[in-house]
Amino acid sequence: MLLNLAIMLMLSIGLKTRALRPLTTAPWNCRRWRYVSQLIISTLIGFGLFVLLALPSIADEGKTASIRALQIPNEFRGNLSLEGYVDASTREAYDISFEEMFHHQEEKFHPISGHGLNLGFVKASGWLRFAIERSPNAVEQREQAILLSLLPNMTNFIDVFVAVDKPGLTPKDFMKFEMGAYAPLLKSSFNGLDNVLRLQLPARGKLVVYIRAANIDSSLNLSATIYAPEGYGKRILNANLVVGLWIGGMLILIAVQLVFFFLDRRSLYGLLALHIAFTALAYFGGLGLSRLLLFPSGGAGNDLFVGSSNWLGLATGTLCIAKILELRERYPRLARLYQLGAVAGLVGVALVLTGHNRWFTPVSGPLILFVTTTALGVTMIDFWRLRHAEAALKLAAFALLWAGILLTNSQRYGVLPLPNWVSKSYGATSMIYFILITGSLAIRLRMAEETSRQADRKAIEAASAAEALAKRRVAERTLELEEAKRTAEAALQAELEAQKMQVRFMDVISHQYRTPLAVVRSNLESVRFTLPQDDAANRERLDRAQQAIRRLVEVIEINRARSILQGSSFEPTVARLPLGTVIDHAEARIKDLFPTALIDRHDGDLLDTEISADCEMLSLALVNLLENSIKFSPADTPRVTISLTADQGLVVIEIRDYGIGIPKDELDHVVTLGGRGSNASHLEGTGTGLSLVARIVAAHHGRFEISNALDGGTIARICLPV
Q: How far apart are CA 145 and CA 230, in angstroms?
């Protein structure tokens, strides 16, 4: 023990020196709290390791020649402690017999100051012996019933040997009772919380009791207490009520974590629910409930259940603490150590299931102490920095958990001569720990919700401001659009007025020119009649003059029609008429304009096909196409082909020339108002002809197409419904 104490003190001093060194050299600034926290953490770790690894001496060096007897007073109620009346023999072989212990008891048994064994993890068995007798002042000389309670109930093997003391007492005079977790439930007199044996004190003499205890995979602790039968049932009822409240509280905490997970969808809440569940299962087994309900026949089942629950609780708890403290983002190296702790928990489960837990279980205490101590240090730092309710709850939670683990392991490992109930301190502190952690998570959720609300409020304010700005801009844009509309309406009105004036002008021109031209034409006819028949030269001159007059009249009429259609009067007067009538009318008009042009006709049998059309408008569209074809053809021999075909309920009027064509990328441009091909700049034109054709065809519910021929020239198609 002194050697272990010296080692732990040296380790603690070394950790402190490492933590103190920055304090002696670093300047006084805002980061000194880090070194202070290192000092606190190293002190806690050093103290904890000392408590866990120091081995107490539970046996005195003296020997006794007789067994001390505890006297049971008259009207005994409640319980009596055997402290001061118990002899013990520790670290005996597993297979040592009661006969050998009985015959060598003066060598093996020594008085102890307590009333039980607390040996920690030892591969041995421990023995207790004591004697009980009635008080010599008893009024009635009769037998008296008492209860012998042996805790904890997780002890694997408990053999109780009982006999009435007499001269020449031998091992054969003792009655053996098998108890413990590996014994069948009925043999153990198991009630759910204690190993209880009912004893009958003789009217005279002593009752001698020997107890053998052994554990396979956990620490060896055993304490003996005497209870009066009266009132023991009430004690057990109260104890079971406390256990029920504890388990119910843990179930409520699990439900709260599941609600948190439903609200926040973070893995932390599910992991914390698992941690609470495994902790509850570990105590469910540790209190004996799993044996009562699941393993009434005894055996290793309860040990496997409790051991697996403990290791799984360690694995999930380590991961849980890492997530609660956000170690991966803040302290990556410490987070990796926690991950190794979780792996150690899974390894522990495997060793429990394979029956090798004894060799690994002593690791759990220092590992849990390291995890809780470092977590306590981190929460102290957080509270120092943040000073808010969440940090305070975390600090309180980990401080209580650390204290509970330290006390529990100190009792279980046999470090300090603590009473058996101290081993339950982790159960009480764990529930308070889970409650405080749940409260801190609730505060975090509340803070996150408040942050979200503030963000939503800011977003709403920003949206309102943006909406107000948008409304202002919409109002400004509306004013601009209204102004632009008024300007456009004024421009449109001006354009309409200009078009009306243009139409009136063309009407005036047509009227003013038509009458003089008719007079000239009439006089030319009169002069032609007066010429001799053999005056061919003058007759030819008169024919050319009349032809020029007809061409001039046609030009005036075509331009007048164009001016009307380009204005506001663009409603066709539809009538059913043969397609040939429209073609003939257009051809006659183009002949007046271009007498020398060569026009080929491929009518097929479609001339008599009736269509619904405005003859003047459709004829004007064909005249425009024919005029363009002739204008952009070679000047010496202008040649145009008119073809009629039928295609899926449509009649197609195709006009093809052999002129300069249209650049491929400009085919869509030339049908717009004012659009002309880049290769037609040397010829006069306004770029309105093809756009007028497209409008006329659309007004007749048809389709206008224009393309280049493979061998040169342009192909224009007017597709009209039959």
A: 10
